[in-house]
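In these records, each integer encodes one residue's backbone shape. Here is one protein:

___
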Amino acid sequence: MSGVSTRRLFSMPTFEGLRLIRAYLAENSHLNLDSAIAAIQAAEADAVALDLQASAVLHELVPIGASLDGVTFYRSCIETVVVELQPIWAKTMTAGRKRFISKLSDEDDISIFEAGALLADPPSWDDVSWWDSITARVRKAKDAQKMEQARQAELLSIEYEKKRLVDLGLDVEPEWTGFEDNFAGYDVLSYEIGNHGLVSKLIEVKSTTASPLRFMITRNEWNTAQEYSDNYVFHVWDMDRETPVLYERKSADVAPLIPSDNNKGKWSLAEIPLGAT
């Protein structure tokens, strides 16, 4: 983005600069982007208050056909920054409008949402539809990021197991089971040396950036862990490090931390703290 920060892109001087650039380009078809900016700087007294460099970057992102009318224009700009650039605060949008706004620390950010008429109370149906659409796209992006992190952790486990098997003098390769079968109950098939030859080592790979360190386990994963007992282990990678750190836990280590069912229901997802093992 030519060195332009998201902070600069999500600002009123940038939005207003983009509106002016688009207006100049619409009225002067012979102008390109650079010449339109030069014309604005020469003719508009208020140009010094605009961030035209950031506006030029945003021009490449906001759909060309976006309306230049107030509320609609602001909503287009907000949507573009949130969806395309995924600022850190965007993740909070999935928590609900009021909670999201309460978490914004910059009054300028809040004023931008106000300019887009997105804070009306009560909201109109159009407002609700806009928020739902954006949060759905933010959630999808978050899920994609989580999947990417999970796959990176699985690759780390495969590389770790390859080296371990070589060190053991075993001429076998680990298999990436989780990529081929989402319902296998584990992610990597590796091997150990048993009393009578090779034995399977089933690895469920977890990635975390949580503090304190913890990971999530599903009912299906735990059922598989119980079925295979000593042959099943958890690889938990702390991804919040420059070089990810591996924590390996056996089923027996995790068992005391698994919640109990009762006559009112059964657990389906459990949070396991690493520090407690």
